[in-house]
Amino acid sequence: MKGLLLYCRPGFESDCAAEIQDQAALLDCFGFVKTQSQSGYVYFECYDPSHAEILIKQLNFFRLVFARQMIAVSELVSGMDVNDRITPILAAAQSLPLGGDVWVETPEGDETKPLLTFCRKFTVPLRAALRKANKITAKEQGRKPRYHLCFLDNKTAYLGYSITYNSSPFYMGIARLKFPNAAPSRSTLKLDEAIQLFIPKEEQETRLAPGMKAVDLGACPGGWTYQLVRRGMFVAAVDNGQIAQSLMDTGQVKYYADDGFKFQPFIRNLTWLTGKNEQGKKVKYPEHTHVHWLVCDMIEKPHRVAKLMADWLEQAYCREAIFNLKLPMKRRYYAVKECLDMMTQRLGEDAFDYQVKHLYHDREEVTVHIRWKAFNK
Ligand SMILES: C[S@@+](CC[C@H](N)C(=O)[O-])C[C@H]1O[C@@H](n2cnc3c(N)ncnc32)[C@H](O)[C@@H]1O
User: Fold this and answer.
1) Is the same domain home to 215 and 356?
2) Residue 198: which CATH number?
3) Does residue 252 have its Cβ closer than 6 Å to ligand 1?
4) Where would I find the Ribosomal RNA large subunit methyltransferase M THUMP-like domain in this sequence (predicted)?
5) Does 258 appear as a known binding residue?
6) What is the pLDDT of residue 377?
7) Exposure of 73 by Cβ count < 10 A (0-12 exposed, 13-18 middle, 19+ buried)?
8) Residue 193: pLDDT above 80?
């Protein structure tokens, strides 16, 4: 493997590039970035080719902010004969580990859009050829690396693989979700995407369960509240704006015309316990929290929101939180990093799990998920 291919939202290539250089350097893996504005991808070539395998395993995909997908790349297959692309691809696939499946993709962008139909059509013959060559197998497919062939034009494609548990489960790294007609705003798709990406499918029903209590700060008109209500939860919706009547009619929403920075949930007495985390480190954790979920989509300065979220988590007001941090115009990666560094310094890495992503449905914001580890079981 030679490097990493990262998909990102077109226009965010420099942020994705700054992030991969910074994060790879923290693992003592150095290289250089090849990128083009509006291309929808960043290629990071490692000076030491063995480092690509280290990075694909050790970089936590769910903490890379701007990468929508992370692929270890063997090579750029170029000058392909349009009548026989399979032969050079099979030759390039020799250096890949045994895989489970293949996705034929293209980075998101106006220039590559016309390639999408071809990508879908080419998948079937390529999958058959890779199976015949014993490079991919349907046996225990979900546990094996997933091949990605990413076309830049009709003769040029990056070939590589992602690790299924450390990559996006979505084709092209894009969660294509159907807008629910009953939702009061399109923002609803942001929270839905965050849930689909950050919470394993098999845990969603227990971690977002009927009867649970949630607080939505900056709730109006109610797209995020809608996602919680449709999962049977009871929501305190905090905002000075107008909440959708359809949500109030469910009887599951209590509306507070309040400032999200001052609102406090109903406080119960908490018992704090001491235990050990997965690494055997001593940690203090609450026996329960006041509410199960905090979500927050207030348009506010990111460091103010980050501080508020840290306050809620630290005082065990909630056990899990999903919130947005608005991005500045410049140096977006460093602005997000500052907020996350502040939160991890305050909360520590032992008691909390963190995830962050510039989601497909996000524009000038990123979405963060933080959770008390004590409630992992
Ligand atoms: C992007 S909108 C939220 C959209 C909502 N998540 C949805 O899905 O419909 C931001 C909201 O934050 C609210 N807001 C901004 N600052 C606030 C504050 N300090 N306290 C409460 N709400 C606030 C605004 O009134 C606005 O309704």
Assistant:
1) yes
2) 3.40.50.150
3) no
4) 84-162
5) no
6) 60
7) buried
8) yes
- What gap in Å lies between CA 60 and CA 83, rounded to an integer? 39
Segment 88-106 shows an average pLDDT of 97
pLDDT value, residue 29: 97
Q: Please, which pLDDT band fits residue 375 given cuts at 50, 70 and 90?
A: confident
Domain count, the chain: 2
Q: Is the pLDDT at 267 greater than 80, yes or no?
A: no
What is the value of pTM for the model shown? Answer: 0.95
- Parallel, antiparallel or unpaired: strands 365-372 and 352-357: antiparallel
Ligand 1 atom having least distance to the Cα of 261? 19
Does the residue 179 lie in any domain? no
Q: Which of 216, 220, 253, 295 has the most ligand 1 atoms within 8 A of CB, as the residue to mutate?
A: 220
Q: What is the Cα–Cα distance from 90 to 197, expressed in whole angstroms?
A: 32
Residue 23 has pLDDT above 80, yes or no: yes
**pLDDT score recorded for residue 282:** 87
Write the CB contacts of 190 (distance below 8 Å, at least 6 apart in sequence).
Answer: 223, 224, 297, 324, 359, 361, 362, 367
In a domain, 57, yes or no: yes
Q: Is the CB of 240 under 6 A from ligand 1?
A: yes
* Helix or strand run (H / E) with residue 323: strand 318-326
From 188, 299, 304, 322, give the residue whose CB has the most ligand 1 atoms within 8 Å, as the site to mutate: 299
Q: Mean pLDDT over residues 84-111, rounded?
A: 96
Contact between 357 and 169 under an 8 Å Cβ cutoff? The reply is no
**Lookup: tokens for 272:** 């704090």
**Cα 20 from Cα 22, distance rounded (Å):** 5
Mean pLDDT of 171-197: 97
Tell me: do 199 and 331 sit in the same domain: yes
Is the CB of 255 within 6 Å of ligand 1? Answer: no
